[in-house]
Amino acid sequence: MTRVPDSRVLVLLRHGESQGNARNVFTGWMDLGLTPKGENEAHAVGRNFRQEGLSFRHVFVSALGRTMETARLLASELERVPDDFYVSAALNERDYGQLAGLNKDEARQRWGDEQVRVWRRSYATAPPSGESLRDVVARVVPYYLRSILPLVLRGQETLVVSHGNVLRALTMAIEGYGPNEIETVEYAPAEAVVYRLHADATIGGEERVAPPVIDGANR
User: Fold this and answer.
1) Residue 184, annotated ligand binder?
2) Which residue range is the domain that position 185 belongs to?
3) Residue-wise over 78-95: b if at least 16 C-beta within 10 A, else e?
4) DSSP the chain
5) What is the CATH number of the domain that holds 210?
6) Alpha carbons 136 and 122: distance in angstroms, whole number
7) What is the pTM (predicted TM-score) of this model?
8) Residue 1 counted as domain residue
9) Is residue 4 part of a domain?
10) Residue 19 included in any domain
11) Residue 207 annotated as binding site
12) Number of domains present in the structure of the chain
């Protein structure tokens, strides 16, 4: 990771591997914790941030435990403890409705590969009784503009630990992606993006940070 100047820094991070990730199920609002591998990923991300000189005044997490635990573990590795932690359901993963708890391979067998792909990747199509990415954008982006972005623009380094679809929604807001472009964007567990913003909230620098490599024996 290239050293990022301390002013107007925003880091987006997906939580470490969860029990739902390990079981290959649609997790959504199910409050499943981290696996041992996910815990190790969180520690490793924190050490990486420390080595790169990154510290945070503010940390935002969803109301689901896997983001809180990721944030707590990585913060324990930082040189300076963050000043504030904010918890908001606005940053919760999308609601997968009837898909929640189902194995993804089983869902493909039931509804077909293409239908499941549309539910997972498209912008406007929601799974049965669940949320589309458009629905997630509708609750995430106003919260970002109201509560997160003003802190970043004041030069207060900010970390958001959330979920894959929430980070896709934030990517649309920050990078100006359209509904078709966002279909190809995804975040692996413990993957991060470091942004340096100009005073007008446009991007001055950006770096995608791959998840740390964790020995499978640590799972």
Assistant:
1) no
2) 9-218
3) beeebeebeebebbbbbb
4) -----STTEEEEEEPPPBHHHHHTBB-TT----B-HHHHHHHHHHHHHHHHTT---SEEEE-SSHHHHHHHHHHHTTSSS--SEEEE-GGGSPPP-GGGBT-BHHHHHHHH-HHHHHHHHH-SSPPPTTS--HHHHHHHHHHHIIIIIHHHHHTT--EEEEE-HHHHHHHHHHHH---TTGGGG----TT-EEEEEE-TTS-EEEEEEEPPPP--GGG-
5) 3.40.50.1240
6) 12
7) 0.93
8) no
9) no
10) yes
11) no
12) 1
Residue type, 127: P
Q: Which two tokens stand for residue 85?
A: 């932690």
**What contacts 187, CB < 8 A, 6 or more positions away?**
12, 14, 164, 167, 168, 193
Confirm or deny that 62 is annotated as ligand binding.
Answer: no
Residues designated as active site: 15, 93
Per-run averaged pLDDT (10 residues), the chain, 219 residues: 64 98 96 97 97 95 98 96 96 97 95 96 96 98 98 97 98 96 95 96 95 67
The answer to whether 21 and 64 have CB atoms below 8 angstroms apart is no
Q: For residue 3, is it within any domain? A: no
The predicted structure's pLDDT at residue 216? 53
65 is in an annotated binding site: no
| 165 annotated as belonging to a binding site for a ligand | yes
